[in-house]
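quick q for whoever's on today - can somebody do inverse folding on this one?? i tried earlier but teh output was garbage lol. tokens:
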């Protein structure tokens, strides 16, 4: 597990995360909602399902999925204590904690129980390199039933590769009320030490390496993409 990707979600960043995520990712809630639509399309309506939520942060996946789908239960992990603490409070306040096992750990610490689906939203681009990303996706694949869907969300393409989008991202901060210097500082902090997968082809290569097939992009916002892919039938990962 990459410690930097966890330590950066310290108490200060955790406390401002829910507001900042909605500025940094225009369409944050829409992305989560569309992920829920894709999962329901893949899993079918109604019924009881077990979902693995990796990098749950402050709990948005469970707020969205749990509200729309009353029969779904969640095993949710995150190694950052400040984020898990906020998720616990938030899910408790909306009555979703009873359907959630919320655990402060990485996914590799979980038993290899086969879940019906998984999510990995906003995590992959924080990891330092392709090997770490592939290892995390492989750990998720080993905890899914064959054919199970994965919702993957995260930034892709280097931030320097698209100067117009990079400039537009800075304008997003300004238009949402940040002073110019704050917009620059926010961007510098978000980009610090983060080198997202270089392209969608790189995302697809990482998914394939971990045994996921048939990826489809359902969301895009500046550098961000949202995909659904499926655990392949090969059990020997
Ligand atoms: C940007 S937040 C995303 C939170 C949430 N999924 C959302 O959509 O708002 C990234 C989260 O990934 C967690 N994280 C970092 N490395 C991780 C790893 N190796 N395994 C699981 N979670 C990790 C961080 O602690 C942080 O809470």
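ok took a stab at it. sequence:
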């Amino acid at each position: 597990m990459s410690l930097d990707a966890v330590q950066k979600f310290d108490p200060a960043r955790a406390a401002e995360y829910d507001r900042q995520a909605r500025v940094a990712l225009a369409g944050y809630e829409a992305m989560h909602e569309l992920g829920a639509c894709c999962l329901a399309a893949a899993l079918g309506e109604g019924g009881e399902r077990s979902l693995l939520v990796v990098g749950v942060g402050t709990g948005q996946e469970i707020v969205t999925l749990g509200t729309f789908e009353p029969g779904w239960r969640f095993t949710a992990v995150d190694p950052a204590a400040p984020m898990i603490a906020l998720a616990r409070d938030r899910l408790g306040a909306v009555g979703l904690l009873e359907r959630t096992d919320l655990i402060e750990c990485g996914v590799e610490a979980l038993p290899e129980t086969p879940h019906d689906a998984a999510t990995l939203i906003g995590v992959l681009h924080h990891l330092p390199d392709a090997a770490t990303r592939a290892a995390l996706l492989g750990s998720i694949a080993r905890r899914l039933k064959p054919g199970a869907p994965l919702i993957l969300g995260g930034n892709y393409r280097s931030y320097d590769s698209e100067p117009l989008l990079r400039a537009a991202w800075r304008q997003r901060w300004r238009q949402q009320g940040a002073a110019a210097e704050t917009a620059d500082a926010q961007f510098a902090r978000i980009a610090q030490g983060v080198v997202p997968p270089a392209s969608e082809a790189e995302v697809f290569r990482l998914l394939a390496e971990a045994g996921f097939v048939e990826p489809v992009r359902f969301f895009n916002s500046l550098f961000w993409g949202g995909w659904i892919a499926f655990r392949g039938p090969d059990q020997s990962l």
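fwiw The chain has one domain: 3-231. also Residues 3-231 form a domain with the Rossmann fold fold (CATH 3.40.50.150). so keep that in mind when u check it
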